[in-house]
User: What shape does this take?
Amino acid sequence: MSTSPRTTRGVLVVVGQGYVGLPLAMRAVEVGWSVVGFDVDTARVKLLEAGESPVEDVPDGALRAALDDGSYLPTTDPARLEGFDVAVISVPTPLAEGSPDLSHIEAAARVLAPALRTGATVVLESTTYPGTTEELVQPILEEGSGLVAGTGFHLGYSPERIDPGNPEFRFENTPKVVSGVDADSLAAVTAFYDGLVSQTVPVSSPREAELTKLLENTFRHVNIALVNELAMYAHDLGIDVWEAIDAASTKPFGYQRFTPGPGVGGHCLPIDPSYLSWRVRQSLGVPFRFVELANDVNDHMPDYVVRRLAAALNRRGLAVNGQRVLLLGLAYKRNTGDARESPSRRIADLLVEQGAEVLVSDPHVDDRHLPTGVRRVDATPEVAEGCTAVVLLVDHDGFDLDAIAARAPYLLDTRHRVAGPGVEHL
Ligand SMILES: NC(=O)c1ccc[n+]([C@@H]2O[C@H](COP(=O)([O-])OP(=O)(O)OC[C@H]3O[C@@H](n4cnc5c(N)ncnc54)[C@H](O)[C@@H]3O)[C@@H](O)[C@H]2O)c1
Assistant: This one.
């Protein structure tokens, strides 16, 4: 990269080159930063070096152009971080036995600290509980650099709102909440993101910014749980919940549409709200009841889907055991290949356990994410016809759902996308 003749805004380090870090790195390249994409995963960095994007929203072409003109350097070498102007931390924040696992953030801060110089800016983007930036990241950076946050370097938090597969709201046109540990830090963090996105939204401290992200995801999580629970009761009461949702959605104020489904997945909804409830319980000694209830409802949706399928088979005098069942969609979200925490996996596992012959189809998810004991197929109408039942779990655009529904002997549609004599909705 040092040989590049191009003048740049400065050197940006992005720690973690995943769903969040890589799109950020590419956007920064686009607006003139020299970007070092640091990751501990050697295989991922090799892939990036070869110009193969592991993130669907980042095309190989953009990655290759950035590699070719020297504006993007993927690396596992901490020595390449020396003297950065801005560093963004976008590493995973999973749960370990139900509690926040901040080990990746801690490791990222430790690797950045010795490379930190006076006047540089560090921003945490990983989703986490309020207090992490000031209580965890700040002391590690200060100790490792000998500098003081605020006077020596700038520090802030800015949550990521990336929505993989959303063609309308991309990184650059989604407003970005920004914060700093003091006024200078806020100014530095805001100036950095003003160069990348169309709108920044400053809040008064990292805690409010950290809470903003958890509020957004908890809001979705709770509302999805609400319609999921409603869908189960409405079915038992013989009421069409989907029609009620459509009707309620015509209200132009005070209502936001959420729809039932087979459960929640991905890296956000099944995990982030628990960061909030953990913090509330740990600091205040009380449960965050909404989060715990939503976890309970959403976690049980895969079992409910299997129960509904079993009941449908039972009505035809059949057991799950021995039936050939086609599952449409393994990803946690339509038109993406991200299968992390996907409810489809749990449904596949339950059906395999009960002795079904499980076929799965997903044009986006690669073989590494196939559950054990299932067979991958193309979702053709002929394949659907050869199964006892089809379960529509993810409504990818690539599925010809009408043709499949027309031939499937029975189809349980968890997304309310198709109709027909053999179709039942969640
Ligand atoms: N994926 C989303 O849609 C999304 C949206 C908003 C926020 N977030 C949050 O952003 C954070 C990152 O999520 P993601 O989806 O990009 O994860 P990811 O798993 O796709 O990518 C994280 C990357 O960080 C790397 N990594 C782990 N430890 C590291 C370390 N110490 N140093 C350098 N690299 C390290 C991993 O190898 C991986 O490549 C999480 O906190 C997540 O909750 C994700």
About this structure: The first strand starts at residue 11 and ends at 15. The pocket of nicotinamide-adenine-dinucleotide is lined by residues 15-21, 38-41, 44, 90-93, 104, 107-108, 126-127, 160, 162, 164, 267-268 (CB under 6 Å). The radius of gyration is 24 Å.
